[in-house]
Amino acid sequence: MNPELIYRLQFLSSLTEGPNGQPLFILTDIETPQNEPPRYRSRLATWDQGLRLLTQGEAKNPLWKGQAIYFLRKVEKAQQLFRLPLTGGEPEQITQLKAGVEGYKVSPDGSKIALLTRGDYQAPKPDEPRVYEDWPVKFDARGALPTQPREVWLLEGGQPRKLLGWPVDIEEVVWNSASDGLYLVAPGSKQEHWNDIQRAYWLDLEGRVAELFGGVGPISGLEPTPDGGLAYLAHAYEHGGGTEARLYHRALNGEIRLLAQGSFLNTVNSDMRMGSGVQTPRVGPDGNLYAVVTEAGGARLLEVTPQGECSYLTEAHESILGYAFCGDELYTLSETSVHGARLVKNGEVLFDPNAETLTGLAQPQPVSYTAPEGHQVPGWVLMPEGEGPHPLILYIHGGPHTAFGHALMLQLQLFRAAGFAVAYANPRGSTGYGQEFAALEARWGEVDEADLLGFLERVLEAFPVDPNRVGVAGGSYGGYMTNWLTARHPDRFRAAVTDRSICNWFSFFGASDIGPRFTWLELGATPWERPEVLWQKSPLSLVHQVRTPTLVVHSEQDHRCPIDQGETWYTLLLQKGVPTRFFRVPEEGHELSRGGRPDRRVARLKAYLEWWNTHLK
After folding, report:
1. What is the pLDDT of residues 43-62, one digit of tens each?
2. Coiled-coil annotation: which residues (predicted)?
């Protein structure tokens, strides 16, 4: 088992209902053409007693309606909407907007399509200046942002027309059941956009807008209900960035009821995904609501009645990447600790695209640490072959408001196959263990550090691992904690890999695509308000204590944790004489480990393994 395994992987995503009660989904594999870099290929597929590909060309975001299947495909540099007739023939391109289509919704009666687009806006050429009066000016995986906000256009009978412009991006639209109007989500002002605050609106087909509710926090997952109401997810940042979402129902008369609360959506870490699927609330054939909720290391499908009675439909040992009702049958994309997404019907696995590729993976062994405060810190250990004692890697997830659990982390399996034990846990700040557990609220580097180090000691006691050969690694928030732990405990770790990390909150505040909002929500501080907190929480303030040999991994186009964070950490360690190496990746962003170009993902994993072999073996 080696990193080149990546080239043989396949991925399932975008599960949705298809014609004749069959599922539609996207199958992504990796092409390796001669004299060209490897690339991902995403095609539209269905399952009809076996896999059947419906396109050979690119397809994304499929939707079946009436006598056609719709999907998005890139034409030159912009995504356009295509229609594939069920009667056969080639897909037909039905939009030619210069800015492309970023999202679409077909009306229930099939007569109209709402488009999220920037119309005929054309971005400046790469060598031309850009002028901004809003924020952010860039975004990870997208680069420099367009100055034209995202609008709602209507496609009806041929040519699309602009239905609604807005001062900032419109985030989401959904049709009402009568096909005579749209619900939409958008910030009410630029300031609300900066702070990730949204409002819900009603939009009629003449372009008239009426505000419904909102203005206190994020809103997402709009879903009209059979009684004429609207279901949605929202909260008001009561616990900062770690606030759990709530599922609400708004009746026609404006009455709002809370139906459920939890870590909605699949926030379980995995490097075995290309794309996602429906996870937000949807009305099922029985009239109940369904949504994916992360709980205790798994992402489960929750059923919610109109009265707010909740029950899970899927098992605790799996994670749901997407779901769809095809006729009356429930289909899911289901992940486990040793499987990427598989197509499952009512609990029966129909299709595993990696059944012959991913064989012999080790089942993680659960282990839990009981903290002095009484809470459990759940985690897992992957043990290599042989008696040991083995070198151990403590691997820390990103977020911090995500989780490890019942979804495959292939890179950890690769570390194990190379002879390293791997321990990974869900410290406080992780999702799926209740609101109190998820809310760090400015305690970065405090309660999470205590949980991680306590968990590490528990692993050292319970497994045949070498306490003198312990490494630490992680990406994003996990990179921050790697920097923090090696600075705070300079003699604890033999080696470290800090990946797309944060070391300096001041520069992160100004340079990250989420900097001001994220920093305030997580630390309650800005460079002018409680600036001492930003310095105290910056690993940079303690860098003089670091002695751990450290590999710094960072992508040049990372706009989430900009590359100056890695550059700064590397330069200071090098100047201090700490053994260090900089693995710097061009043209990639924050998602290198999960969605970067395949050969660059392979090179990254090789760099990790070389570092561990040099400093931990």
Report:
1. 999 999 999 999 999 999 99
2. none
